[in-house]
Fold this sequence. Notes:
Layout: H1 5-33, H2 40-65, H3 69-90, H4 97-126
Helix pairs in contact: 1-2, 1-4, 2-3, 3-4
Amino acid sequence: MRHDLLSTIAGGFLVLEGIGIAVLAVMQAGAIFGGDTAVIDTALALLVLTVICAAAVVAFGVAVMRGRSWGRSGGIVTQLLILAIALGAATGAYAHPLLGLELAIPAIITFVLLVAAARRSAKAEGASPDAP
């Protein structure tokens, strides 16, 4: 599939989110080495999962830029998970509404870009001469 600007922008947003998650992993590592964790086993497990998540989101972004449908699918699921985290951050006993908003705005923008890229890809594939 040809590369289009919409897919490049959507993929770029995903890569930036992956980098943000990697920064979170670095902060978690700093807390572990600084002795700011109650249970080291749990902290290490969370760090490993965060690093895996960062790598996956970056991979989704690269795949979207290359026009791969699995990258768009993974990116959409990632945005829905980020929106769930944003809702949790904005509500509850220890609510931080501004933090929830800071998480939700890029997730909504990226979600819209990914859905638009998926629609454009479906339209382009339907118009191809190989389509039945």
